[in-house]
Amino acid sequence: MSTASLTLIIAGAIMLGLSIDIILRGTRKLNIAASVFIGLFALVIASEGIKGYLLSVARVGLASGFIRAEFAFIILLASSFYLFTNHFPRGEYWKIKRGFMYSLIAMSAVFVVVSILGLDRSSASYVMVFDNGMYVPEVMIEYNFLHYIMAAYIGGIAFYSLYLIVAKAKRVRLIYQKQQIRYFLTAAGIFGTLFFLTQLFRNEFPPTLKYIMLATGGVIFASITFYSIIVYRFGSLRKTVSRVGSEFAVSLILLVPVVSVLFMVRSWLADLSPPLFFLLITPSVAVVFRIVELAYMLVKQILGSHPVSEDMTERIINRLWNARNYEELAFRTVTLLEEQIECGNADFLIYNEKEKVFKVEFSSMDNHFNIPGDEPLFQQFEKDAVFYHRDVVNIDPRYLFIKDNAEKYFAAHQIQILVPIFYESEIPALIHISQKLDENSYTNPELGIIRKIAKIVTIAMNNMILFQKEENAKSTLRDLNLAMQIQDSIFQHDVPKFAKLDVHMFQQPAKWVSGDYYMIEKTPDDGAGMIIADVSGKGIPAALVAMVIHTVVKTQEFTKTSVGSIVKKINEVMTLNQSMSGFTRISSFATLFCGYIDCGTSTLYYNNAGHMPMLIFDRVKSRFDYLPPNAKPVGLFPEFEYPTSVKKLSRNKILVLFSDGITEAINRKDEEFGQERLEAVIRENEGKAAREISSRIIDELTEFSEGREQFDDITLMVIKL
User: Fold this and answer.
1) What is the DSSP string of 608-660?
2) Does the domain at residues 482-720 carry the CATH identifier 2.60.120.10?
3) pLDDT range class, residue 603, cuts 50, 70, 90
């Protein structure tokens, strides 16, 4: 098999694996449409490679069959592209007229049948080459009128679908939706450019180069589309690419022994040289193994035997706790439910105090309705019940007193699960969850996910309500001033002097008081103990938790063996009044980084409890190192252990700790400041003192924000060795 043909086949296999992976991650409409679209794209690419191979071995008859199949796949690809664009980006839907859809299906079916039965393409652009370098021309098949009609149909559908995406780019409001469209159009542009070049210079380019360009463009397009479908926030693209690359590298290393065995019996496989054999076969086997693994996972998911991930709580927190308002919280909650439990529909309703009704804030089916606030069922809710399951309510004697009202409510709104969100004794929000898409019952792991989501939504909702009450109540102005003075009195203003360290700290609350906390102190052995914390929520509740953290820290001593115990003590105090559900009654938790620098041995002992990674810039090597989280946030799990990790340091290092108020600051274009900009400022000012580096970071952040209101607390600690 020639190198060019094998390249296309490998590319098709990789793209097929991505299409399977998309549907494994969720069976919502967008995932299904994207999986079909990329899967058909993979078949087109692979068919091109198989056809080329058949021509290289003079199997013209089989090659002609693959020409027909490939054209049929292209017809289906154009139709699937239209369906894909109707659901892309996530959260947007373009209504399809039934008549147009039926016409599209009928025309596609007719064209596919005609293509399979005998419609071929002219092969003037399909010239294949043998391994020994001899060109073999493909049999020429003339175009006909029907072919031009079908080509016009394919082009028309493709350009109209592309127009739909461009039109949506102007109407979407959320940052991640704009990024999804931008990523997809970039990927389409890359593939389109490579494809155009292969057609423009088809007589000048060697066949091998042409096939490699198509394979590369196809894999890039499928990979970026895959990434834009499964990821909501795009700040971690570099980390994601790095992780995927490392995983693939490990797979290659593990497959070397297998490939070595195949090489020893290669005589019956092909007459390939050793370098070419390892170059081509090793990635091929890796791709096959990955596809088999994905297929196995897909079967397990279909059978309903997939377990809930141990990190599900962290993923839910990451998606929900940073929501800035009710609208964003509703959107994130509904999309998360659709993704994780595959429900047919979910509605998030907010209570309107003025009209005394619950209104749909966001719905996956775009529902719009009101529910009176005096609904009898709501008066019977128990605060300890996380949700009400229709099947359980109808058979469990504990719910006998609400059974009749509950069944009427479930039937009227066609839902399976009702989640009341409590704030003290009030119900500010409701979540409706319908049946699953496959109409099966919800499994225990899925009910566990619903329970976790309900808890996190309750925390987020309570914090928003508390913050809103602070903002709206004029009578709290005096209390806020007092709280600000009290908090200012406990925060550190004077930085200790260290013999071997240059330290500067900065903090700027978003509102009156800060939910961030920081401290650095000099130990008797001239070491440096430090802590930076970011409490969930804003305003007085978050500030109170920050004061709790301050109180605990001031009672502890920083040593190389006490870092983990300090974080554990903070967690014990914050979870002291927890209920059986495992979530704190004060409706808050915190991420924090606690560390101790032994200046004598230049060693950092640390624990990162779900906080932003510490940045370590090596001035000699001009590169960054990162200390990511090695434990869960404090305030969630009462008996969680917090280990102490060790990092060896050296001279000419710059350590930077910060809160997400820096990286998630946005400008008037809704763009985030991001970690890359932060790293760029550090790199540009590496030769300056810690105070100057800190000042430059804040200046750049201020200039970037363009006067937009600060929505989160900003905390920064720069340590220069």
Assistant:
1) EEBPPPEEEEETTTTEEEEE---BPPBTS-TT---PPEEEE--SSEEEEEE-H
2) no
3) very high
